[in-house]
Amino acid sequence: MAGRLAGKTCIITGTGGAMGSEAALVFAREGALVIGCDVDADAAQQTLERVRAEGGRMESLHPLDLSTQENAAALAAFALSHGGRIDVLYNNGGGVRMAWLPDMSAEDWSFTIRNELDIIFFAVRAVWPTMVEHGGGSIINVGSVSGKIAYKVLPAVAHSAAKGGVIAMSKHMAMEGGPHGIRVNSISPGLVLTPSTERKMSDPAWAEAMIGKIMLARAGTPADVVPAAVYLASDEARWVTGADFAIDGGTTAW
Ligand SMILES: NC(=O)c1ccc[n+]([C@@H]2O[C@H](COP(=O)([O-])OP(=O)(O)OC[C@H]3O[C@@H](n4cnc5c(N)ncnc54)[C@H](O)[C@@H]3O)[C@@H](O)[C@H]2O)c1
């Protein structure tokens, strides 16, 4: 299959989720061999079947909890066994627990940091040696608007710490990766409609507060976000590293 990602082996994490499943479909349409994974085996399997039904090339390791170093290493080994090399690591998957500061337990704090920040560090560590060996690669880390600003209606103290960490860590990784041809960038989406955010949008006050932050006055969709990742994964972005891409309808530009 020809395409902007033809010949590339691309790991996408969290392929059972809203943006991960969209990413798997679009990356496969662009000619990538997609290596997916998710802790949610049923959802990951559904994505695998959708991609293959379209004629796309995909392998998936699930259930896989990526929040341990051992499992991150297993994912890299799985990708190498199918693709022979790893060209792209798209760190999309993550889990979060939301609570207002006085109610945020130490356990929920640690869960969020582990599943949004550690998870990316472990995956990057796991693919780094093979990317160095092959002379480069592209790493795309998903941050969030919550890593830069606070929302009045979002109890995001741990989430903002984790996503701010993702954005900052990506710049450091870009600096270490530069001499090896490894590009590292982050994508920071604003409010994106997924099953979980759609449930919250049924509260009019919540929806008004969130949409009021968006210059384009509507929530995004996974299809609004994934093209940025395709660009960063492709050779078109060969001179782009250390950047954070705000895909947020103007939320952070007021
Ligand atoms: N939806 C939004 O409004 C929004 C906004 C900004 C950023 N983001 C970020 O975009 C990314 C994708 O979000 P989404 O909205 O598609 O969420 P989602 O919950 O639909 O998808 C995330 C996927 O990651 C998987 N996952 C969670 N923990 C895991 C683990 N330890 N190991 C393996 N898989 C794990 C989940 O099972 C899920 O399928 C996330 O990093 C999220 O923080 C989302």
Molecular structure report:
With 254 residues, the protein is an alpha/beta fold. The chain has a single domain, classed as Rossmann fold. The protein is 46% helix and 15% strand. It has helices at residues 18-29, 41-53, 69-83, 106-133, 157-177, 195-201, 204-211, 222-233; strands at residues 9-13, 33-37, 57-61, 88-91, 137-142, 182-189, 244-247. It has a seven-stranded parallel β-sheet, sandwiched between helices. α3 (69-83) runs parallel beside α4 and α4 (106-133) runs parallel beside α5. The chain starts with 8 loop residues before the first strand and ends in a 7-residue tail after the last strand. Nicotinamide-adenine-dinucleotide binds at residues 14, 16-20, 38-40, 43, 64-67, 92-95, 115, 119, 142, 144, 189, 191-192, 194, 197.
Question: SSE layout and pairings?
Answer:
Blueprint: E1 9-13, H1 18-29, E2 33-37, H2 41-53, E3 57-61, H3 69-83, E4 88-91, H4 106-133, E5 137-142, H5 157-177, E6 182-189, H6 195-201, H7 204-211, H8 222-233, E7 244-247
Parallel strand pairs: 1-2, 1-4, 2-3, 4-5, 5-6, 6-7
The protein binds nicotinamide-adenine-dinucleotide.
Overview in brief:
The protein is an alpha/beta fold. It has a single domain (9-247), classed as Rossmann fold (3-Layer(aba) Sandwich), CATH 3.40.50. The protein is globular.
